[in-house]
Amino acid sequence: MLTNTITRPIEIGLRVVGIWPDAAYTIASRLFWTTTMLIAQIFQYRHVVLHCNSEDLEQLMDGLSATLSYSLLFVKLIVFWTKQRYAHIFDPSPFIIPYGKNRFLNLRRGATLLSRCSTKLILSRIFNDVLARIATDWKECEGAENCGNAWYNMSYVAGLSQRFSNLIIGLHSIAVMFYGIGVVVLHGDNDNPDDRELFLKMELPFESGTSPVYELVMTTQFLHQITAATVIGVLSALLVTLVLHAGGQIDILRENLLEILPKNQKPTISMVTIGPLIRRHQNIIIFTEKIEDLYSYIALAQFISNTLVICCLGFIIVNSIGAHGSSMLVRSLLFYIVINLEAFIFCFAGEYLSIKSKMIGDAAYESLWYNLTPNESRILLFLIMRSQKQLTITVGRFTNLSLQQFANIIKSSASYVSVLHAL
After folding, report:
1. CA separation, residue 18 to residues 33, 109, 294 (Å)
2. What is the DSSP letter of 7?
3. Does the residue 95 lie in any domain?
4. I need a labelling partner for 39 at 20 to 30 A (CA). Which of 77, 148, 265, 395 fits?
5. Closest alpha carbon to 165 in 223, 71, 232
6. 114 in a domain, yes or no?
């Protein structure tokens, strides 16, 4: 049975790009990625600008799709590196720790208590706190004999996270391989140095079509491309892992809510039994807020980039059917699937958190709260009221991520493809 939600491939990937806390050579990793990404982006955008008026619109769309994908990765890395710095966040701990019975029973004082605690600021590193919260959840549940079903629930979530992580990272790496195969097959027999195509469309300051410079550039681009694609998969798999962990904690909370009021005996409740549940609920809320802080502006960049990239790749696929044979489909089809999968992961994560957060209030309501005394039922009432606020991931603080947003991305991309095809 697995004993960690963060899988080993994700940890290795985060160490490589200098995101993992206290990793060796963090500064060197960040300098390496910043330098290589800046150099690649300069030559890629130079190629896009010089070929904007080109009659070969398909080649322009091919280069633009890869360029935007690299730009999105650069934005993600910058956001994660920024979140490693210390930032001010609200500290709600004076509100959630039950010092006395009246703190939860007197609901009229709730607004005053919350306003007081929200004015207290503490220093925190967002991603470090997320990993620390996951480690604490596992430490509190060290064995099946101590936690019962909670241990099996967390182990199941860890196994599910591992399978999804391997699938996402593997698909991104395979997409790069198929893209490279398509480039080689399409222009492999071309001996003209001026017509030789690179893996990444770049306008280099030197002649890259002659041997052995061409082979050296192709090898460098392929290694960098497959590494970058793997990192993109790691960051997407990390989001899935964090959301699944939050969902697993919500399931544990729901089971505990249903167990504190069993049907075969007289229901009773006290601060001894409800206090840990309220603390767990608040920890879930803080954990999801940190996920939102990590991925909110990444989701905004993802929303814009994926719409344009899906449009470009859709245009290439539509034009390549019957025109260029199977080589163009080989290099673009799996890339198209992976980009759609990446957009779906973000939208599904927001939808999953929203649905799971509603289940907390439903579980509290389905318990035998009506058999409690009025003072005891008010404790559950407070938890139900707090669970009515949705847990979700937003697109740059503007709108919530949901499957409806994924449908909007697909519809917008399809409409842009039809316009380009008409041109």
Report:
1. 9, 45, 16
2. -
3. no
4. 395
5. 232
6. no
Residues 287 and 130 sit within 8 Å (Cβ to Cβ): yes
Number of domains in the chain: 1
Cα–Cα dist 345/66, whole Å: 20
**Full domain range(s) for residue 145:** 8-85+125-422
417: region left, alpha or beta (phi > 0 left; psi from -120 to 50 alpha):
alpha
Residue pair 393/406 in contact (Cβ under 8 Å)? The answer is no
- Helix boundaries (H) for 51-187: 57-83, 93-96, 101-105, 110-117, 126-139, 144-147, 149-187
Which phi and psi (to 5°) does residue 217 adopt? -65, -40
Residue 279 identity: R
Kindly state the DSSP code that residue 141 receives in the 8-state scheme: T
Cis peptide upstream of residue 267 (ω within 30 degrees of 0): no
> CA angle 386-392-395, nearest 5°?
140
The residue with tokens 């409740």 is: 269
- pLDDT above 70: percentage of residues in the chain: 81
Q: Are 2 and 162 in contact (CB under 8 A)?
A: yes
Taking the C-alpha atoms of residue 21 and residue 11, their distance in angstroms, rounded to an integer, is: 10
State the 10-residue block means of pLDDT for the chain, 423 residues long.
78 91 87 93 90 77 88 92 62 40 38 39 68 87 62 85 92 87 67 71 83 87 91 93 92 82 62 77 91 91 91 85 66 87 92 89 77 75 80 87 90 85 72
The length of the chain in residues reads 423
* Phi, psi at 89, each rounded to 5°: -135, 165
Retrieve residue 70's tokens.
């690299």
For residues 202, 413, 390, 81, the Cα torsion angle rounded to the nearest 10 degrees is 0
Distance, CA of 351 to CA of 198 (rounded, Å): 39
The torsion angles phi and psi of 34, rounded to 5 degrees, stand at -65, -45
| Token reading at 93 | 């701990």
Task: State how far the Cα of 176 lies from the Cα of 167, in Å rounded to an integer.
Answer: 15
107, part of any domain: no
pLDDT tens-digit map of 10-36? 999 999 998 988 888 889 999 999 999
Distance, CA of 73 to CA of 79 (rounded, Å): 10
| Any domain includes 206 | yes
Q: What is the DSSP string of 286-338?
A: HHHHHHHHHHHHHHHHHHHHHHHHHHHHHHHHHHHTTTTTHHHHHHHHHHHHH
